[in-house]
Amino acid sequence: MTEALLKTPLHALHVEHGAKMVPFAGYDMPVQYPLGVKKEHLHTRDAVGLFDVSHMGQLRLTGENAAATLEALVPVDIIDLPNGNQRYAFFTNEQGGIMDDLMVANLGDHLFVVVNAACKEQDIAHLKANLLDGVELEVLEDRALLALQGPKAVDVLATLNPAVKEMVFMDVARLELLGVECIVSRSGYTGEDGFEISVPSEQAAALANTLTDSDLVEWIGLGARDSLRLECGLCLYGHDLDTTTTPVEASLLWGISKIRRADGQRAGGFPGADIILEQIATKDVKRKRVGLVGQTKAPVREGCKLFDANDVEVGIVTSGTAGPNAGKPVSMAYVRSDLMAVGTEIFAEVRGKKLPMTVEKMPFVPQRYYRG
Protein backbone atom coordinates (compact mmCIF):
# COMPACT_ATOMS: atom_id res chain seq x y z
CA MET A 1 0.00 0.00 0.00
CA THR A 2 2.74 2.45 1.02
CA GLU A 3 4.48 1.98 -2.35
CA ALA A 4 1.49 3.58 -4.07
CA LEU A 5 1.72 6.80 -2.04
CA LEU A 6 2.97 9.87 -3.87
CA LYS A 7 5.90 11.85 -2.48
CA THR A 8 6.46 15.59 -2.45
CA PRO A 9 9.81 17.00 -3.64
CA LEU A 10 10.72 17.47 0.06
CA HIS A 11 9.99 13.91 1.17
CA ALA A 12 13.64 12.97 1.80
CA LEU A 13 14.10 16.10 3.95
CA HIS A 14 11.16 15.14 6.19
CA VAL A 15 12.59 11.67 6.74
CA GLU A 16 16.02 13.18 7.42
CA HIS A 17 14.50 15.44 10.09
CA GLY A 18 12.83 12.53 11.88
CA ALA A 19 9.26 13.16 10.71
CA LYS A 20 6.55 10.62 11.43
CA MET A 21 5.07 10.00 7.97
CA VAL A 22 1.41 9.14 7.35
CA PRO A 23 -0.81 8.71 4.26
CA PHE A 24 -2.73 11.93 3.50
CA ALA A 25 -4.71 12.64 0.32
CA GLY A 26 -2.68 10.02 -1.55
CA TYR A 27 0.69 11.37 -0.36
CA ASP A 28 3.21 10.24 2.24
CA MET A 29 3.17 13.32 4.47
CA PRO A 30 4.78 14.41 7.77
CA VAL A 31 2.21 14.46 10.59
CA GLN A 32 4.77 15.55 13.20
CA TYR A 33 8.50 15.93 13.88
CA PRO A 34 10.47 15.02 17.03
CA LEU A 35 9.37 18.35 18.60
CA GLY A 36 5.79 16.98 18.82
CA VAL A 37 2.44 18.43 17.74
CA LYS A 38 1.82 20.73 20.72
CA LYS A 39 5.30 22.30 20.69
CA GLU A 40 5.15 22.68 16.90
CA HIS A 41 1.81 24.48 17.29
CA LEU A 42 3.12 26.83 19.99
CA HIS A 43 6.36 27.48 18.09
CA THR A 44 4.39 28.63 15.02
CA ARG A 45 2.39 31.08 17.14
CA ASP A 46 5.56 32.40 18.83
CA ALA A 47 8.15 32.38 16.03
CA VAL A 48 8.04 30.66 12.61
CA GLY A 49 6.89 27.29 11.31
CA LEU A 50 7.71 25.81 7.89
CA PHE A 51 5.09 23.53 6.31
CA ASP A 52 5.36 21.39 3.18
CA VAL A 53 2.05 21.78 1.35
CA SER A 54 3.32 20.54 -2.01
CA HIS A 55 0.50 17.97 -2.12
CA MET A 56 -1.90 20.80 -3.02
CA GLY A 57 -2.80 21.30 -6.67
CA GLN A 58 -1.18 24.27 -8.42
CA LEU A 59 -2.90 25.41 -11.61
CA ARG A 60 -2.43 28.18 -14.16
CA LEU A 61 -5.32 29.65 -16.17
CA THR A 62 -4.36 31.80 -19.18
CA GLY A 63 -6.35 33.62 -21.86
CA GLU A 64 -8.47 36.77 -21.81
CA ASN A 65 -11.50 34.79 -20.64
CA ALA A 66 -9.63 33.11 -17.74
CA ALA A 67 -11.32 35.22 -15.05
CA ALA A 68 -14.76 34.78 -16.64
CA THR A 69 -14.21 31.01 -16.79
CA LEU A 70 -13.46 30.79 -13.09
CA GLU A 71 -16.10 33.33 -12.04
CA ALA A 72 -18.81 31.18 -13.64
CA LEU A 73 -17.92 28.37 -11.19
CA VAL A 74 -17.61 30.30 -7.90
CA PRO A 75 -19.76 32.90 -6.04
CA VAL A 76 -16.78 35.23 -5.92
CA ASP A 77 -15.64 38.32 -7.83
CA ILE A 78 -12.77 37.05 -10.00
CA ILE A 79 -13.20 39.43 -12.97
CA ASP A 80 -12.31 42.50 -10.87
CA LEU A 81 -9.57 40.78 -8.83
CA PRO A 82 -6.69 43.28 -8.97
CA ASN A 83 -3.31 42.28 -10.38
CA GLY A 84 -1.10 41.28 -7.44
CA ASN A 85 -3.98 40.17 -5.24
CA GLN A 86 -5.29 36.82 -4.09
CA ARG A 87 -8.81 35.80 -3.04
CA TYR A 88 -10.45 32.86 -1.25
CA ALA A 89 -13.12 31.07 -3.31
CA PHE A 90 -15.09 27.84 -3.45
CA PHE A 91 -16.54 25.73 -6.25
CA THR A 92 -20.28 25.12 -5.82
CA ASN A 93 -22.49 22.41 -7.31
CA GLU A 94 -26.07 22.67 -8.64
CA GLN A 95 -27.44 21.93 -5.16
CA GLY A 96 -25.47 24.84 -3.69
CA GLY A 97 -23.01 22.46 -1.99
CA ILE A 98 -19.28 23.17 -1.78
CA MET A 99 -17.12 21.01 -4.09
CA ASP A 100 -13.81 22.43 -2.84
CA ASP A 101 -12.34 25.65 -1.51
CA LEU A 102 -9.38 27.28 -3.24
CA MET A 103 -7.13 30.30 -3.51
CA VAL A 104 -7.07 32.41 -6.69
CA ALA A 105 -4.29 34.89 -7.46
CA ASN A 106 -4.09 37.39 -10.32
CA LEU A 107 -0.52 37.48 -11.63
CA GLY A 108 -1.31 39.77 -14.56
CA ASP A 109 -0.74 37.41 -17.47
CA HIS A 110 -2.50 34.47 -15.75
CA LEU A 111 -4.54 33.32 -12.78
CA PHE A 112 -2.67 31.11 -10.32
CA VAL A 113 -5.02 28.72 -8.53
CA VAL A 114 -4.28 26.46 -5.56
CA VAL A 115 -6.74 23.64 -4.82
CA ASN A 116 -6.92 20.95 -2.13
CA ALA A 117 -4.95 17.75 -2.68
CA ALA A 118 -7.89 15.39 -2.14
CA CYS A 119 -10.02 17.30 -4.69
CA LYS A 120 -7.26 17.99 -7.21
CA GLU A 121 -8.31 15.59 -9.98
CA GLN A 122 -12.01 16.46 -9.64
CA ASP A 123 -11.26 20.21 -9.72
CA ILE A 124 -9.06 19.91 -12.81
CA ALA A 125 -11.78 17.94 -14.63
CA HIS A 126 -14.41 20.49 -13.53
CA LEU A 127 -12.34 23.39 -14.87
CA LYS A 128 -11.51 21.60 -18.12
CA ALA A 129 -15.18 20.89 -18.74
CA ASN A 130 -16.03 24.59 -18.35
CA LEU A 131 -13.20 26.44 -20.12
CA LEU A 132 -14.37 29.37 -22.25
CA ASP A 133 -12.90 30.02 -25.70
CA GLY A 134 -9.18 30.67 -25.73
CA VAL A 135 -8.62 29.70 -22.10
CA GLU A 136 -5.89 27.21 -21.30
CA LEU A 137 -5.49 25.26 -18.09
CA GLU A 138 -2.01 24.13 -17.11
CA VAL A 139 -1.40 21.82 -14.17
CA LEU A 140 1.92 22.81 -12.61
CA GLU A 141 3.38 19.39 -11.80
CA ASP A 142 6.95 20.66 -11.39
CA ARG A 143 6.45 22.99 -8.42
CA ALA A 144 6.58 22.55 -4.66
CA LEU A 145 4.60 24.68 -2.21
CA LEU A 146 5.96 25.86 1.14
CA ALA A 147 4.12 27.76 3.86
CA LEU A 148 6.24 29.94 6.16
CA GLN A 149 3.97 30.95 9.03
CA GLY A 150 4.27 32.90 12.25
CA PRO A 151 4.83 36.41 13.64
CA LYS A 152 8.52 36.42 12.65
CA ALA A 153 8.03 34.90 9.17
CA VAL A 154 8.50 38.26 7.47
CA ASP A 155 11.88 38.79 9.20
CA VAL A 156 13.12 35.40 8.00
CA LEU A 157 11.89 35.74 4.41
CA ALA A 158 13.11 39.35 4.13
CA THR A 159 16.69 38.09 4.49
CA LEU A 160 16.19 36.42 1.08
CA ASN A 161 14.21 39.26 -0.51
CA PRO A 162 13.39 42.49 1.37
CA ALA A 163 10.44 43.17 -1.01
CA VAL A 164 8.27 40.85 1.12
CA LYS A 165 8.14 43.56 3.80
CA GLU A 166 6.08 45.73 1.45
CA MET A 167 3.41 43.05 0.97
CA VAL A 168 0.20 42.95 3.00
CA PHE A 169 -2.29 40.14 3.63
CA MET A 170 -3.49 38.57 0.35
CA ASP A 171 -0.87 40.30 -1.81
CA VAL A 172 0.88 38.04 -4.33
CA ALA A 173 4.02 38.62 -6.39
CA ARG A 174 6.68 36.91 -8.45
CA LEU A 175 9.83 37.32 -6.40
CA GLU A 176 13.35 35.98 -6.62
CA LEU A 177 14.44 33.80 -3.68
CA LEU A 178 17.97 32.32 -3.79
CA GLY A 179 18.15 33.37 -7.46
CA VAL A 180 14.98 31.48 -8.40
CA GLU A 181 11.68 33.08 -9.40
CA CYS A 182 8.94 32.04 -6.96
CA ILE A 183 5.27 32.94 -6.59
CA VAL A 184 4.92 34.41 -3.09
CA SER A 185 1.66 35.32 -1.39
CA ARG A 186 1.29 36.89 2.06
CA SER A 187 -1.29 34.43 3.32
CA GLY A 188 -1.62 31.09 5.03
CA TYR A 189 -3.73 28.59 6.92
CA THR A 190 -2.66 29.19 10.53
CA GLY A 191 -4.29 32.53 11.34
CA GLU A 192 -0.79 33.98 11.71
CA ASP A 193 1.07 36.36 9.44
CA GLY A 194 3.11 34.46 6.89
CA PHE A 195 3.73 33.48 3.30
CA GLU A 196 2.99 30.69 0.86
CA ILE A 197 5.78 30.11 -1.63
CA SER A 198 5.46 28.23 -4.92
CA VAL A 199 8.95 27.18 -5.96
CA PRO A 200 10.25 24.95 -8.80
CA SER A 201 10.62 21.41 -7.43
CA GLU A 202 14.39 21.18 -8.06
CA GLN A 203 15.06 24.24 -5.90
CA ALA A 204 12.55 23.38 -3.12
CA ALA A 205 14.97 21.54 -0.83
CA ALA A 206 17.60 24.31 -1.04
CA LEU A 207 14.98 26.92 -0.14
CA ALA A 208 13.59 24.81 2.72
CA ASN A 209 17.08 24.19 4.12
CA THR A 210 17.96 27.89 3.94
CA LEU A 211 14.75 28.83 5.77
CA THR A 212 15.20 26.19 8.49
CA ASP A 213 18.84 27.28 8.98
CA SER A 214 17.33 30.18 10.91
CA ASP A 215 17.03 29.55 14.65
CA LEU A 216 13.51 30.97 14.43
CA VAL A 217 12.20 28.30 12.03
CA GLU A 218 11.04 24.75 12.81
CA TRP A 219 9.52 22.16 10.51
CA ILE A 220 5.80 21.72 11.29
CA GLY A 221 3.64 18.70 10.41
CA LEU A 222 0.00 18.13 9.50
CA GLY A 223 -1.00 17.63 13.15
CA ALA A 224 -0.14 21.16 14.22
CA ARG A 225 -1.36 22.56 10.91
CA ASP A 226 -4.78 21.18 11.80
CA SER A 227 -4.87 22.54 15.37
CA LEU A 228 -3.55 25.95 14.24
CA ARG A 229 -6.21 26.40 11.52
CA LEU A 230 -8.97 25.19 13.83
CA GLU A 231 -8.11 27.63 16.62
CA CYS A 232 -8.34 30.40 14.03
CA GLY A 233 -11.75 29.25 12.75
CA LEU A 234 -10.55 28.08 9.31
CA CYS A 235 -12.42 25.24 7.61
CA LEU A 236 -10.89 21.98 6.41
CA TYR A 237 -12.46 20.66 3.22
CA GLY A 238 -13.90 17.16 3.55
CA HIS A 239 -14.50 17.74 7.28
CA ASP A 240 -16.09 21.17 7.90
CA LEU A 241 -17.11 21.62 4.26
CA ASP A 242 -18.48 19.14 1.72
CA THR A 243 -20.77 18.77 -1.29
CA THR A 244 -23.89 18.59 0.93
CA THR A 245 -23.11 21.86 2.74
CA THR A 246 -23.91 25.29 1.32
CA PRO A 247 -21.78 28.38 2.02
CA VAL A 248 -24.67 29.80 4.08
CA GLU A 249 -24.84 26.70 6.29
CA ALA A 250 -21.04 26.81 6.52
CA SER A 251 -21.12 30.43 7.84
CA LEU A 252 -19.03 31.54 4.83
CA LEU A 253 -21.17 34.52 3.80
CA TRP A 254 -18.04 36.69 3.97
CA GLY A 255 -16.67 34.61 1.08
CA ILE A 256 -19.57 35.45 -1.25
CA SER A 257 -18.74 38.71 -3.06
CA LYS A 258 -21.35 41.49 -2.92
CA ILE A 259 -21.24 41.83 -6.72
CA ARG A 260 -22.43 38.19 -7.05
CA ARG A 261 -25.30 38.51 -4.55
CA ALA A 262 -28.95 39.12 -5.46
CA ASP A 263 -28.59 42.92 -5.68
CA GLY A 264 -25.08 42.89 -7.19
CA GLN A 265 -24.09 43.89 -10.74
CA ARG A 266 -23.15 40.32 -11.64
CA ALA A 267 -25.68 38.54 -9.45
CA GLY A 268 -25.75 34.74 -9.53
CA GLY A 269 -24.37 32.96 -12.58
CA PHE A 270 -22.63 30.24 -10.55
CA PRO A 271 -23.83 26.65 -9.91
CA GLY A 272 -26.50 26.48 -7.22
CA ALA A 273 -26.93 30.27 -7.22
CA ASP A 274 -30.73 30.14 -6.85
CA ILE A 275 -30.49 27.98 -3.73
CA ILE A 276 -27.62 29.94 -2.14
CA LEU A 277 -29.11 33.39 -2.84
CA GLU A 278 -32.50 32.23 -1.52
CA GLN A 279 -30.84 31.04 1.70
CA ILE A 280 -29.11 34.41 2.08
CA ALA A 281 -32.41 36.24 1.57
CA THR A 282 -34.53 34.11 3.90
CA LYS A 283 -31.85 33.02 6.41
CA ASP A 284 -33.76 29.75 6.26
CA VAL A 285 -31.29 26.92 6.83
CA LYS A 286 -31.73 23.92 9.09
CA ARG A 287 -28.15 23.84 10.38
CA LYS A 288 -25.17 26.16 10.77
CA ARG A 289 -21.45 25.82 11.39
CA VAL A 290 -20.56 27.11 14.85
CA GLY A 291 -17.61 27.16 17.21
CA LEU A 292 -17.86 25.19 20.44
CA VAL A 293 -15.71 25.50 23.57
CA GLY A 294 -15.49 22.65 26.05
CA GLN A 295 -16.40 23.27 29.69
CA THR A 296 -14.25 20.26 30.67
CA LYS A 297 -10.65 19.50 29.71
CA ALA A 298 -11.53 16.60 27.40
CA PRO A 299 -11.01 17.35 23.68
CA VAL A 300 -14.15 16.78 21.61
CA ARG A 301 -13.14 15.30 18.27
CA GLU A 302 -14.66 14.98 14.82
CA GLY A 303 -17.67 12.67 14.69
CA CYS A 304 -18.93 13.29 18.23
CA LYS A 305 -22.71 13.65 18.32
CA LEU A 306 -24.26 16.72 19.91
CA PHE A 307 -27.39 16.92 22.08
CA ASP A 308 -29.52 19.68 23.60
CA ALA A 309 -30.50 19.89 27.29
CA ASN A 310 -33.44 17.54 26.58
CA ASP A 311 -31.11 14.85 25.19
CA VAL A 312 -32.32 15.40 21.63
CA GLU A 313 -29.61 14.96 18.98
CA VAL A 314 -28.99 18.37 17.40
CA GLY A 315 -25.75 18.13 15.44
CA ILE A 316 -22.26 16.74 14.93
CA VAL A 317 -18.67 17.85 15.51
CA THR A 318 -16.63 18.19 12.30
CA SER A 319 -13.25 19.22 13.80
CA GLY A 320 -11.85 19.25 17.33
CA THR A 321 -8.60 19.89 19.18
CA ALA A 322 -7.26 20.47 22.69
CA GLY A 323 -6.64 24.13 21.74
CA PRO A 324 -3.00 24.70 22.82
CA ASN A 325 -3.25 28.52 22.63
CA ALA A 326 -6.96 28.80 23.38
CA GLY A 327 -6.22 26.99 26.65
CA LYS A 328 -9.37 24.89 26.37
CA PRO A 329 -10.86 22.29 24.01
CA VAL A 330 -12.26 23.88 20.85
CA SER A 331 -14.39 22.32 18.12
CA MET A 332 -16.26 23.20 14.96
CA ALA A 333 -19.68 21.67 14.54
CA TYR A 334 -22.94 21.83 12.64
CA VAL A 335 -25.93 22.38 14.91
CA ARG A 336 -29.62 22.99 14.42
CA SER A 337 -29.90 26.65 13.43
CA ASP A 338 -32.04 27.59 16.45
CA LEU A 339 -29.06 26.66 18.68
CA MET A 340 -26.40 28.76 16.96
CA ALA A 341 -26.55 31.77 19.33
CA VAL A 342 -23.33 32.50 21.25
CA GLY A 343 -23.63 31.21 24.82
CA THR A 344 -25.95 28.31 23.99
CA GLU A 345 -25.08 25.16 25.94
CA ILE A 346 -24.80 21.92 23.97
CA PHE A 347 -23.68 18.48 25.11
CA ALA A 348 -21.12 16.34 23.25
CA GLU A 349 -21.17 12.60 23.57
CA VAL A 350 -17.63 11.42 24.33
CA ARG A 351 -17.11 7.76 25.28
CA GLY A 352 -20.67 7.47 26.55
CA LYS A 353 -20.56 10.67 28.61
CA LYS A 354 -22.35 13.93 27.77
CA LEU A 355 -19.83 16.76 28.12
CA PRO A 356 -21.07 20.37 28.28
CA MET A 357 -19.90 22.77 25.57
CA THR A 358 -20.77 26.39 24.82
CA VAL A 359 -21.32 28.01 21.42
CA GLU A 360 -18.61 30.65 21.00
CA LYS A 361 -17.72 33.13 18.28
CA MET A 362 -14.82 32.10 16.07
CA PRO A 363 -11.88 32.49 15.76
CA PHE A 364 -11.03 31.05 19.17
CA VAL A 365 -7.69 32.88 19.12
CA PRO A 366 -7.22 36.18 17.26
CA GLN A 367 -6.13 36.06 13.62
CA ARG A 368 -2.97 38.09 13.15
CA TYR A 369 -2.76 38.68 9.42
CA TYR A 370 -0.62 41.66 8.43
CA ARG A 371 -2.83 44.32 6.83
CA GLY A 372 -0.32 47.19 6.89
TrEMBL record:
GO biological process: glycine catabolic process; methylation
The GCVT N-terminal domain, residue ranges: 10-257
Residues in Aminomethyltransferase C-terminal domain copies: 287-365
Highest taxon, organism lineage: Bacteria
One Pfam family from the record: GCV_T
Keyword Secreted tagged: no
GO molecular-function terms, A-Z: aminomethyltransferase activity; methyltransferase activity; transaminase activity
Keyword Methyltransferase: yes
UniProt-annotated binding residues for substrate: E196
Entry's Gene Ontology cellular component terms: glycine cleavage complex
EC number: 2.1.2.10
Coiled-coil features, chain-numbered ranges: none
Family: Belongs to the GcvT family.
Protein name as catalogued: aminomethyltransferase
Organism (species): Vibrio halioticoli NBRC 102217
